[in-house]
Amino acid sequence: MNHFERRDGQLYCEDVALADIARAVGTPTYVYSAATLTRHFTVFDEALAAVPHRICYSVKALPNLAVLRLLGDLGAGFDVVSQGEIYRLLSAGLPTKHVVFSGVGKTAPEMAFALEHGIHSFNVESEAELGLLSEVAASRGQRAPVSLRVNPDVDPQTHPYIATGLKQSKFGIPWGRALPAYDLASRLPGIEVVGLDCHIGSQLTSLGPFLEAVDLMVGLVETLRAQGHRITDLDLGGGLGITYADEAPPHPKDFAEAVIQRTRHLGVRLLFEPGRVIVGNAGVLLMRVLYEKASDARHFVIVDAAMNDSIRPALYGAFHRIQPVVLRPGDSRVVDVVGPVCESGDFFAKERALEPVAPGDLLALMSAGAYGFSMSSNYNSRPRAAEVLVRGDRFHVVRDRETLADLTRGERVA
Ligand code: LLP
Q1: Which residue range(s) make up the domain with 158?
Q2: Where residue 359 sits, what CATH number does that domain have?
Q3: pTM (predicted TM-score)
Q4: Rounded-to-integer distance, Cα 14 and Cα 31, Å
Q5: How many domains does the chain have?
Q6: H and E: helices and strands count for the chain
Q7: For the segment 71-123, what is each residue's pLDDT rounded down to a tens digit?
């Protein structure tokens, strides 16, 4: 459920007309709903109420300070993958004690930064990383709390670019090397083992692959404990999918119930790292139609947002619904919705039936909260979009639209 709905033919975010935001802030603009963010987090959190747990929101999905602060105030922890994401949390005035640090390429300075700020744990993805982390921690007179991320070789049945738990993927410690890796960890002076972690992929739309991974992880926790390792955390990653078109992903409640049923006997603390399911349907990208153009083969609707603002259609062939903000009378037409960037991959929709629109009209790219702004760039020297957070009948600009001066900041003529 989300808080984007039509009233008298006009699209609203909560109690604010999207057209009013476009008038005040311009386009392209990302618009997020605070009520939707709150609801998505709360539903997930309450579904786990019966067991010790922490939901560590995956910052990469939508790292705006206002969103981090809103979720942090609700009790979220955070899954980060860089020093920059920790810096964002600090900038949002949030504590770092519930942070888990994932990623296959952490550098020594990043490790030191995380240790300095006292994060909850590192999700370590290789034996080599374990060795470096031990050195960095020991040199600071610390022991780094660690969960090992293992790769269970489970097919998440999702887009190949976002499948992470297959043995061909770069992520995690290969399943067959998990036990020796834990033995190594227990011998290293700068490491304190606290748990076990996996993340098999993103935009999963069925429970099967999750539960296959959970069963494997449960077995591994039992084996590790039998060998004397102290495993108090079981981190099952993120990956729960959302509805972009007609997908019917598991409800967080059903997902949580199934996980609790399988893990309760272990008495572990469950950690999750959801990103998309919290923010995906809590955001839209607001854009304006610039031109229409017909060729013999196609009818193009050219808009003022582009692949630099949201790269998901170009990169993954991703589907996002597109709706006019204000409806006009007339029949739908089959169109391509494209941006101004100089690439044929710069499209939001191809051969899509779209309600009638004319130059000057506003369109909303739906389900754009996750991996929208966070993957945006300045390609074609386009300043990045503004971001707006709606709360009830008020809206706040939570990131200014970039200026031309922002585009060249730090550059100079040699
Ligand atoms: N934990 C880890 C270790 C991850 O790598 C990810 C996402 C998550 C959690 C959060 O996954 P989520 O709950 O959002 O599925 N840019 C792509 C998605 C990339 C996902 C990367 N890792 C897209 O736009 O679909």
Answers
A1: 34-276
A2: 2.40.37.10
A3: 0.97
A4: 11
A5: 2
A6: 12, 21
A7: 999 999 999 999 999 999 999 999 999 999 999 999 999 999 999 999 999 99
